[in-house]
Amino acid sequence: MKNFLSINDCSTEQLKELLAESRQLKKLYKAGGRDLCLSGKTLAMLFEKPSLRTRISFQVAMTDLGGSAIYVKPEDIGGIGKREPIKDIARVLSRYVDGIMARTFEHNTITELAGFATVPVINALTDFSHPCQGMADVLTIEEHCGRLEGVKIAFIGDGNNVARSLAFACAKLGMKMIIATPAGYELDAVSIETANQISADSVSQTNSPAQAVVDADIIYTDTWVSMGQEDEKQKRLDDFAGFQVNAELVKSAPGAKIMHCLPAYRGLEITDEVAESENSIMFDQAENRLHFQRALLKKLMS
Predict the structure, then answer these.
(1) Is 1 inside a domain boundary?
(2) Minimal CA–CA distance to 245: which of 205, 286, 283, 212?
(3) Residue 78: which domain range?
């Protein structure tokens, strides 16, 4: 594994290896131990979009492993691909650092960085894919359900980058996923077909949240208005009416764990009551970003 750009790029064996390493490192650090496998190494973190969890979890992970991280804002380099070509940025950074993490809008930005870099490149989010979030979610599901095989995820909301990454994870790791979106916001057919070619009938889609949550082990939601979609906010709020994860919806799957990749806009895609309920594992998800990313950095950079 040279880079980590999409869950779909990885084999089932590679994903399971990363999960096993995540569990091992989590146990080690919870017990006060340390693995300084990245001592003396540096990660460049390029951001087109601001972030709480992504920046802090990667920076802490590098520090925990004995390395260091450099936070690069868009204005620091005149914008990725604006002042100078992406291919030049990739090759210059490869002479300075041992790894590149990027959080960008267009997926082509991360693939071009990876194509020209001679050090590992990690996708920390693009509009197409959010693989680090997806794998932290899988780690969380495994911890709370005691298994992955046969787990049913009901994803309620926008057929976005998080839904796509989870769909690929489900196909690779034996889970089932049903996505409930308003008409016009479905996950694209190519992604669903790709997942179902990996594992038949692993991902399906509906326009009914009530149908999706029946017998679900996990009820998952995400913001209806992502960064870059602010101009569509009112239309999206209107179109997603009826897709809120609330107490009434959860009644159909009373034992289901509630997941949200955050930030959560309480009163919109999820109610405060459900977010704060005993079945909510949102903050376990957030914590597991750190534990998965430690394992990923160790795999790619040590």
Answers:
(1) no
(2) 212
(3) 7-130+286-301
Q: Report residue 28's pLDDT band, with 50, 70 and 90 as the boundaries.
A: very high
Q: In this model, does residue 229 exceed pLDDT 90? A: no
Going by pLDDT thresholds of 50, 70 and 90, the confidence category of residue 50 is confident
Instruction: Count Cβ atoms within 10 A of the Cβ of residue 107 and give its class: 0-12 exposed, 13-18 middle, 19 or more buried.
Output: middle
CATH number for the domain spanning 84: value is: 3.40.50.1370
Distance, in Å, from the CA atom of 286 to the CA atom of 104, rounded to the nearest integer, reads: 20
- Is 273 found in the same domain as 165? yes
State whether 272 and 142 are in the same domain: yes
Q: How far apart are CA 126 and CA 5, in angstroms?
A: 9
Mean pLDDT of the chain: 97
Q: Is the pLDDT of residue 286 over 90?
A: yes
Of 182, 189, 141, 186, the residue nearest 160 (C-alpha): 186
User: pTM of the prediction?
Assistant: 0.97
Cα separation, 1 vs 151, whole angstroms:
27
Q: Which amino acids are annotated catalytic? A: 103, 130, 133, 222, 261, 289
List all residues 6 or more positions away from 189 whose beta carbon is below 8 Å from its beta carbon: none
